[in-house]
Amino acid sequence: MTATNFTVPGMDKTTADKVIAVLDQRMVALIDLGLTLKHVHWNVVGPNFIAVHEMLDPQVTAVQEMVDAVAERIATLGGIPVGTPGAIVGRRGWDDYSLQRALANEHLAALDVVYTGLIEDQRSAVKKLSELDAVSEDLLTGHAGDLELFQWFIRAHLESSGGELPTEGVSTEKGAAGKVS
């Protein structure tokens, strides 16, 4: 996947290739998240429609900025950030978001599951990068904080006054949506 015969000063090509591979998976996941959030934005209905609809656009914008930062880091390290639709689908290890038109709380419950998986993978990537590249680690750490904040926004809509989440322990989008419908 590396395009050039050089990388940043102080990093060897083998390490750069490892870092690029980690960053590439994060780029794919973030592109997918941005599209999923926009899909939900277009397909949310029912009570709380406008609150959810308007909450998602700033998340989409922030995620697009994360994608750009990760892609530019890949290029900085000598890699090729490939973000075309077919290439993204080919490198993605998960299925498409499973809800279409649905009530606000159903989409929020499903997004909680999406964010959980994404944040777990993000933290794993940060850990891998801690041994490879502090600059890339710092980039993904900052993104993890933002993603965790976005999940909190989602969860605040779902949480009971006693602090319980209906999505606790649920691992599928449709399963989570079913818990709140």
Automatic annotation (TrEMBL):
Q: Out of the domains of life, which is the source? A: Bacteria
Domain (Ferritin/DPS) spans: 21-159
Which SUPFAM superfamilies does this chain map to?
Answer: Ferritin-like
Which Pfam families does this UniProt record tie to the protein? Ferritin (PF00210)
Citing just one GO molecular function, the answer is: ferric iron binding
Sorted alphabetically, which Gene3D superfamilies does this protein's record hold? 1.20.1260.10
Q: Show the NCBIfam families listed in the entry.
A: PRK09448.1 (NF006975)
Q: Which family does it belong to?
A: Belongs to the Dps family.
Q: What is this protein called?
A: DNA starvation/stationary phase protection protein Dps
